[in-house]
Backbone:
């Protein structure tokens, strides 16, 4: 038991911090978010092909570096601090875990080496409704001569308009709830998929709507085993929540840091406003929220790591829901609190487009919603606490 | 980072669980889950015997170094001990102040002679200690200590006069450590000394404080020319503040995990009641129960982080959040317990003012955000020490 970074992990964290300080200044972030793709392709290429970030958690047999999800979370935290738009979250916290949990070896051998090599970007599309559980899966897969014919629409697909690989969830016609769900890994340019980018309140992360019209997929593209679609999707979503929580923790930390820096210089009534106790106490509360989010996200990252590792502790799977929900709750509320307070403590300039607090505030709002609100995750936990669902 | 306990640690866990199972029986069975915060005056004599039982199992000071008579258990093993102790319903520790606070302080700052004199009776469960810090005029402003001690040359004793307040279990204690002003005319944190004072003497009077719970865990302690031998001063005269602050650092150690296991026991009771009385179907209460549940997990993860990579007891800046985190969580649990009970929460266990366990929790948790540094003081500490913000005028 050691809930502290190893020397190697600290090195990964420091080098990521250094790299992002160079490439992800406020103006770089603003340029990227206003660009056509929504991110800077050159920076992504450096992350993917020089720093090997997407390869980190992929086992060596698939061309990866054989580290784990803890390392992914360290990068997510640093990316969150800078709000750098990039396909990292969708590729490494959504799609890669889905592939890693699959037992379809040929499919893993086809896609994982491409991700590890930084050659492709991937995402996960699963919900057709403003819901993040099994009831949202409403793209139907009709059996069709050796394969399936898919029809429906995916919403809120992160970086979905501009990726190469899609992990998708489908439902057998007539099925409801957790039954009848399958996961496939398909090329994003499969005929019949129309992809639309949708302008978003938070401009640092792109969302897409995908419309599927008679898209044909085959058994070979099935990631999930019979009857295991929902448990697999559920675990993938928990793991993604953990990656997101790490990112949110980073955003919360940076919201506080830029605020501290501002209030240490700003003077009113002849003194630095950081010296007012009314402000100090609020900053103390923000640090409390951040450290709670960080503890929850570190612990959850360890659990996710065990779940994704073939040699991991099998009992970790039972803790995944609780750890993921806890991390998502605390990181969501912590980030929103820090970002909202950042605007308030900046005063008037906090309300301008020029200063950065609004970027964090909008990202905090979007991330709080993404993959389930705190209230949603508390309800999931309540079911577990009261033994209403195993 | 990893969250696994080693096979050896898991085996140790079995040992502790088994020891508790074998020893918390017979006359001691009455102590299970008793004597915690809000219930500290429960059966003190029997709990002192229980401390001696623990001593025989060499569980007191098990984390202390061998040179001080401890077992030198690793941090992980200490964590496991406190968790299994609380899981088995081990009673609130009468010896906590000796084992957790003054013992480590004497080990760190005392002379070898002082260590040999004071540490063995703590380890044996024979000496019980109380803490003489707060005074009527020195609460949050702890440095405003008025209690004074003068060295009486003919007798070679320190003569102590003044008043301490909020002294837990003073009436059950053999010894008290006292922060007193030994340099006449000094102010603030200068000129204070850390003295060890025997309680059973004519110069000391203990008067219980009746709290809003109706019970009296806390006391006022009056010193009127009370005596302490010259060699009962820890460190040098004038070192008192430094030693007093170091002692408070020991408080945030491994025992936090055991405290959280007690919190889990309380939360389990709230969940059990919610399931039987229908509160579990109330969407708002479900949210609050889940929030409490996940909040307790986070307290645990905070502690595990605090303890990781720490061998010398020194804590990183993030450890400053610990008191604010748990007290805020616990005070909300007390309120939640009442809201889950609904109108039943009003009905006492008996006249004239006998509280149920959850009523005691509700009322007593109001102290959690005050004692040991109020939440306002904690926020000052976080802002100034961890965030480097300007200090308050002092």
Residues:
């Amino acid at each position: 038991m050691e809930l502290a970074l190893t020397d190697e992990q600290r090195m990964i964290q420091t080098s990521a911090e250094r790299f992002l300080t160079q490439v992800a200044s406020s103006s770089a972030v603003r340029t990227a978010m206003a660009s056509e793709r929504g991110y800077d392709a050159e920076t992504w290429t450096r992350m993917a092909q020089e720093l090997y970030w997407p390869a980190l958690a992929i086992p060596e047999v698939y061309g990866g570096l054989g580290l784990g999800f803890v390392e992914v979370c360290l990068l997510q935290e640093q990316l969150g601090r800078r709000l750098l738009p990039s396909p990292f979250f969708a590729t490494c916290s959504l799609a890669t875990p889905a592939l890693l949990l699959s037992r379809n070896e040929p499919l893993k051998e086809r896609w994982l080496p491409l991700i590890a090599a930084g050659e492709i970007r991937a995402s996960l599309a699963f919900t057709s409704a403003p819901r993040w559980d099994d009831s949202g899966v409403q793209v139907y897969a009709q059996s069709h001569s050796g394969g399936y014919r898919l029809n429906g629409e995916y919403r809120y697909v992160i970086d979905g308009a501009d990726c190469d690989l899609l992990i998708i969830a489908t439902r057998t016609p007539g099925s409801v709830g957790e039954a009848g769900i399958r996961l496939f890994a398909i090329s994003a340019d499969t005929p019949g998929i129309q992809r639309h980018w949708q302008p978003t309140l938070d401009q640092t992360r792109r969302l897409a709507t995908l419309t599927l019209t008679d898209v044909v997929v085959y058994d070979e593209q099935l990631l999930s085993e019979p009857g295991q679609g929902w448990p697999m999707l559920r675990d993938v979503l928990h793991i993604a929540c953990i990656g997101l929580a790490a990112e949110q923790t980073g955003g919360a930390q940076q919201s506080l840091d830029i605020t501290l820096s501002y209030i240490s210089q700003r003077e009113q009534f002849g003194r630095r406003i950081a010296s007012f106790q009314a402000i100090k106490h609020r900053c103390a509360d923000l640090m409390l929220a951040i450290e709670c989010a960080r503890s929850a996200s570190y612990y959850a990252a360890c659990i996710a790591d065990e779940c994704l590792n073939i040699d991991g502790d099998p009992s970790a799977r039972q803790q995944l829901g609780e750890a993921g929900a806890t991390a998502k709750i605390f990181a969501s509320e912590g980030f929103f609190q820090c970002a909202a307070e950042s605007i308030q403590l900046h005063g008037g300039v906090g309300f301008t487009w020029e200063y950065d607090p609004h970027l964090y505030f909008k990202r905090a709002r979007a991330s709080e919603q993404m993959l389930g609100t705190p209230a949603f995750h508390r309800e999931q936990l309540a079911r577990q606490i009261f033994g209403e669902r195993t | 980072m990893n969250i696994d306990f080693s096979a050896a640690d898991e085996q140790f866990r079995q040992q502790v669980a088994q020891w508790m199972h074998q020893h918390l029986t017979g006359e001691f069975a009455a102590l299970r889950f008793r004597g915690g915060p809000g219930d500290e005056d429960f059966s003190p004599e029997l709990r002192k015997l229980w401390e001696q039982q623990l001593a025989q199992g060499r569980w007191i000071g098990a984390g202390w170094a061998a040179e001080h008579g401890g077992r030198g258990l690793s941090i992980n093993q200490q964590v496991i001990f406190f968790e299994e102790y609380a899981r088995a319903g081990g009673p609130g520790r009468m010896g906590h102040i000796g084992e957790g606070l003054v013992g480590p302080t004497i080990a760190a700052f005392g002379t070898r002679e002082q260590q040999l004199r004071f540490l063995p009776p703590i380890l044996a469960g024979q000496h019980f200690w109380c803490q003489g810090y707060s005074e009527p005029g020195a609460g949050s402003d702890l440095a405003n200590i008025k209690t004074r001690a003068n060295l009486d040359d003919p007798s070679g004793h320190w003569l102590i006069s003044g008043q301490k307040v909020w002294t837990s279990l003073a009436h059950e204690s053999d010894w008290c450590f006292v922060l007193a002003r030994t340099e006449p005319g000094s102010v603030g944190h200068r000129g204070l000394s850390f003295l060890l004072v025997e309680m059973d003497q004519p110069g000391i009077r203990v008067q219980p404080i009746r709290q809003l719970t109706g019970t009296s865990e806390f006391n006022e302690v009056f010193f009127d020319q009370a005596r302490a031998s010259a060699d009962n001063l820890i460190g040098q005269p004038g070192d008192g503040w430094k030693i007093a602050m170091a002692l408070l650092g020991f408080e945030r150690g491994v025992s936090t995990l055991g405290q959280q296991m007690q919190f889990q026991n309380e939360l389990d009771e709230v969940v059990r009641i919610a399931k039987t009385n229908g509160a579990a179907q109330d969407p708002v209460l479900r949210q609050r129960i889940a929030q409490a549940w996940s909040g307790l997990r986070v307290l645990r993860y905070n502690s595990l982080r605090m303890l990781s990579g720490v061998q010398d007891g020194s804590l990183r800046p993030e450890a400053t959040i610990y008191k604010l985190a748990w007290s805020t969580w616990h005070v909300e649990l007390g309120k939640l317990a009442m809201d889950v009970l609904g109108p039943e929460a009003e009905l006492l266990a008996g006249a004239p003012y006998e509280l149920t366990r959850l009523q005691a929790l509700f009322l007593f948790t109001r102290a959690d955000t005050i004692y040991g540094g109020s939440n306002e003081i904690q926020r000052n500490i976080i802002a100034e020490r961890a965030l480097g913000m300007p200090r308050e005028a002092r």
Remarks:
- The longest strand of chain A covers residues 147-158.
